[in-house]
Design brief:
Length: 117
């Protein structure tokens, strides 16, 4: 049994209330996409070798934080037995995550200051 889990209707739920679930989602997604990705963009605009590398690390942390929020939402949908990606909001969020991942992979491989083009 996981610490912090509760049993409801013969199913284990990771979050004992909707309020805790909402707080975790808000913290991980907003911190990732707004806080860390925004800071990474501003860091890159300062230019230079160190800021370019720092930009990549901060953006990667933002992306991982966003994926943590995505994981929580996905698992909650599975637990509740609801369908995934039924609204425009969910489809747009998935597109943003996939697009950000692709940009990060391209930037890390092509624009990296040590071995990029």
């Amino acid at each position: 049994m996981l610490s912090g889990t509760i049993m409801m209707a013969d199913r284990w739920h990771l979050f004992p209330s909707q309020r805790i679930f909402t707080i975790i989602i808000s913290l991980s997604l907003h911190t990732g996409m707004v806080g860390l990705m925004g800071t990474a963009t501003l860091t890159k605009k300062r230019m230079g070798y160190t800021n370019t590398k720092l930009h990549g690390m901060i953006a990667w942390a933002g992306l991982m934080s966003s994926y943590a929020g995505f994981y929580v939402i996905y698992q909650n949908k599975n637990t509740m037995g609801k369908d995934h990606y039924t609204t425009l909001h969910s489809k747009a969020g998935l597109a943003v995550l996939v697009g950000s991942t692709m940009l990060g992979m391209a930037g890390g491989g092509v624009l990296h200051p040590d071995f990029g083009i």
